Amino acid sequence: MNIIPCSIKTLKGLYDISGVEVGQHFYWQIGSFQIHAQVLITSWVVITILLGSVIIAVRNPQTIPTDGQNFFEYVLEFIRDLSKTQIGEEYGPWVPFIGTMFLFIFVSNWSGALLPWKIIQLPHGELAAPTNDINTTVALALLTSAAYFYAGLSKKGLSYFEKYIKPTPILLPINILEDFTKPLSLSFRLFGNILADELVVVVLVSLVPLVVPIPVMFLGLFTSGIQALIFATLAAAYIGESMEGHH
Q1: pLDDT tens across 141-172, in order?
Q2: From residue 26, how far is each of 19, 127, 133, 136, 201 by CA, in Å?
Q3: What sections of the protein cross the membrane (predicted)?
Q4: Which of 117, 190, 228, 236 has the fewest CB atoms nearer than 10 Å to its CB?
Q5: Going by C-beta distance under 8 Å and a sequence separation of 6 or more, which residues neighbour residue 247?
Q6: What does DSSP assign to residue 212?
């Protein structure tokens, strides 16, 4: 079976995805490198929001928690429960990774629905949520792939690769291709849903009065949160599967 050529083609397809563009984009040219500036700008804004919120919430913890402290403790407990459910008793070291993925995607998705990015004029292109760009979602998916490979190898060593011939060596091609399709499905699911939501809102705003698309915007907030939860849940499930073995 042509496993190696097929795998190479899949990897090349992942690389080529980075060239996909919807609309016009704003770039920075640094030497021979072309950097997707609008994604970096909005990503920095999201990271600043997250860091600022955490610093404000934990800089002066109270014995009797404030509303903000209660909120962040609830978020942390939610991420711990999610990680424990999907990974198992060895979930502890993976809480920061799963939490970072969930919070970054959640705030990125909501920023596209709440922040008026498009009123900021750029020389070319326009600002949008970081997860509205395929480069961001592919990067997050590849990080997830690296995480579950690391989890499996760190626990089982080279015996981790035995999963590819279980329950029968006949399934070797399918088991190999499964690891290449996981980042594809993760990245396209997130990218497609966020892009579609923002496009629908933009079209409705251009066609009807501003008040009419508000229900659609609220629906977008809900689906944005669900997409962040799905991504984090699948990431934790893949890590748990790599540590436990093939199911």
Answers
A1: 999 999 999 998 888 888 888 888 877 778 78
A2: 14, 9, 12, 15, 22
A3: 35-58, 94-114, 134-153, 190-212, 218-239
A4: 117
A5: 241
A6: T
Cα distance between residue 207 and residue 213, in whole Å:
10
3-state secondary structure of 38: helix
The four Cα atoms 221, 80, 236, 101 give a dihedral, to 10 degrees, of: 50
Segment holding 177, helix H or strand E: helix 172-207
Are 40 and 133 spatial neighbours (Cβ–Cβ below 8 Å)?
Answer: no
Burial readout 84-113 (b: 16 or more C-beta within 10 A, e: otherwise)? bebbeeebeebbebbbebbbbbbbbbbbbb
Burial category of 211 from C-beta neighbours within 10 Å (exposed 0-12, middle 13-18, buried 19 and up) = exposed
- In the numeric block, which tokens belong to residue 58? 């934990």
Phi, then psi, of 28 in degrees rounded to 5: -105, 135
CA atoms of 74 and 46, how far apart (whole Å): 20
Residues 122-147, buried b or exposed e (16+ Cβ, 10 A)?
Answer: eeeebbbbbbbbbbbbbbbbeebbeb
Q: Report the Cα–Cα distance between both ends of the chain, in Å, rounded.
A: 24
Whole-Å CA distances, 62 to 7, 41, 65, 71, 224: 53, 34, 5, 13, 32
Q: Which tokens in the block code for residue 132? A: 């509205």
Whether residue 79 contacts residue 236, with contact meaning beta carbons closer than 8 Å, is answered with no
